[in-house]
């Protein structure tokens, strides 16, 4: 007996139709679009308790989603404590894309408006980032490089050298190219294709997250050969070498709580850049440009000025620096051009962030009522951390 294969996309818009009918905010790559649809379909079937692909007509399909909005909201809120912030946002966005692809635009907006009810400190986190080594000493660099050379692991040697010299993200290794040489200054220009790019950013550069960059570095025959070999690598080669480096670092330093990885070199690169440039007036722009960040606020994720050392580092060219947006004033609530001390602001931001992330106790709320907040504001703080308030908010919105 022959079986008829079901079309999982029969009640949804094609990628071309979806792109043409929706605003730029919903523009994604085709592969990303179908990943969202697949993830949403699998989770919607669990949330609604039925198989959406079994529904024949689009009218019945959309009715099933509309009638199950409460269960979708409940599914999202229950998932909050079990997922990382990024994973939860991705799940919510996949539901919104599925609703939008079904023609339910208002429902998609309602789903996008749901906020994560779980306090940040209580959410699941990726352990591997917490376990990364963020300061690589010369001794550790020499040890891991020698270990990979003795194992004839050429790919790992290439990636380690590039991470040390250029501070690249691992996925950027294949997009590096030597452009020209300046014999008088004994330097060469190296182009690095940025990795943090989206389809929206390709169509409008003001919306892109990362930037392509050109760095001036001392002429080095070894670096030139390393770049040539890196251009022949495949993404699977880079992933495999990352695993080999992880295992090697575990054997070399079994007692270390933080493990060396390729991103450890990028953290160290960021620390050294901050040590050398951050006290200059345009230092933040230089650091962000060399790291491949679109905004200066992005550099806060990498490196620490205290652990950095002064050494010879790549310099971004003028065109690369022009791509960077200094958004620190906007981030910290200051007017553009207004002077402020980032160190003082960051300390206060850490305190404020801790207070917002913590689940407030009755004692905290009482203290806030008497010292800092009016009764109404204290009530709103409590509601933001209460999952039931999410349901009430959405019901009132309807």
What is the terminal separation in angstroms?
A: 48 Å
Mean pLDDT: 79
Q: Helicity, in percent?
A: 40-55%
Q: Provide the spatial order of strands within the biggest beta sheet.
A: 1-2-3-4
Estimate the global geometry from the Cα principal axes.
elongated
Rg from alpha-carbon coordinates: 25 Å
- Main sheet makeup: 4 strands, antiparallel
Estimated structural class: mainly alpha
Instruction: Give me the count of strands.
Output: 4
Order of helices and strands: HHHHHHHHHEEHEHHHHEHHHHHH
Describe the structure.
With 398 residues, the chain is mostly helical. It contains 20 helices and four strands. The protein has helices at residues 15-21, 30-48, 58-67, 69-79, 85-101, 105-112, 127-130, 138-150, 154-166, 199-203, 221-230, 235-252, 262-277, 283-291, 318-322, 328-331, 342-357, 362-371, 375-384, 387-397, and strands spanning 176-182, 187-192, 213-218, 315-316. It has a four-stranded antiparallel β-sheet. A hairpin with a 4-residue loop joins strand 1 (176-182) and strand 2. Helix 5 (85-101) runs antiparallel to helix 6 (105-112) and helix 8 (138-150) runs antiparallel to helix 9. The longest helix has 19 residues, at 30-48.
């Amino acid at each position: 007996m022959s079986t008829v294969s079901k079309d999982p996309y029969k009640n949804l818009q094609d990628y071309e139709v979806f792109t043409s009918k929706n605003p730029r905010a919903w523009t994604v790559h085709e592969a990303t679009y179908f990943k969202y649809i697949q993830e949403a379909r699998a989770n919607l079937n669990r949330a609604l308790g039925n198989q959406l692909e079994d529904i024949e007509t689009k009218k019945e399909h959309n009715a099933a989603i509309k009638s199950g909005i409460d269960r979708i909201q409940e599914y999202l809120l229950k998932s909050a404590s079990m997922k990382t912030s990024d994973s939860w946002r991705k799940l919510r966005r996949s539901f919104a894309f599925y609703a939008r692809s079904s023609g339910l635009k208002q429902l998609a907006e309602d789903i996008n408006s749901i906020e994560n009810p779980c306090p940040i400190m209580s959410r699941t986190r990726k352990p591997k980032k917490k376990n990364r080594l963020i300061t690589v000493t010369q001794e550790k660099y020499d040890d891991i490089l020698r270990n990979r050379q003795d194992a004839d692991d050429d790919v790992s040697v290439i990636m380690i050298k590039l991470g040390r010299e250029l501070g690249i993200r691992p996925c950027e290794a294949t997009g590096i190219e030597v452009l020209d040489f300046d014999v008088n200054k004994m330097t060469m220009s190296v182009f690095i294709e940025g990795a943090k790019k989206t389809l929206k950013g390709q169509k409008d550069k003001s919306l892109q997250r990362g930037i392509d960059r050109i760095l001036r570095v001392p002429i080095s025959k070894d670096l030139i050969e390393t770049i040539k070999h890196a251009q022949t690598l495949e993404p699977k080669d880079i992933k495999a070498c990352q695993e080999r480096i992880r295992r090697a670092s575990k054997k070399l330093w079994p007692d270390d709580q933080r493990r060396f990885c390729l991103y450890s070199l990028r953290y160290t690169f960021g620390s050294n850049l901050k040590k050398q440039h951050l006290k200059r007036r345009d230092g933040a722009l230089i650091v962000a440009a060399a790291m491949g960040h679109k905004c200066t606020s992005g550099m806060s994720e990498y490196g620490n000025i205290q652990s950095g050392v002064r050494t010879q580092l790549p310099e971004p060219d003028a065109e690369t620096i022009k791509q960077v947006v200094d958004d620190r004033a906007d981030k910290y609530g200051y007017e553009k051009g207004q002077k402020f001390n980032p160190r003082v602001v960051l300390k206060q931001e850490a305190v404020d962030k801790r207070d917002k992330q913590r689940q407030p106790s009755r004692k905290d709320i009482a203290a806030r009522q008497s010292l800092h907040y009016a009764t109404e504001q204290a009530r709103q703080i409590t509601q933001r951390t209460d999952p039931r308030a999410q349901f009430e908010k959405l019901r009132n919105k309807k």
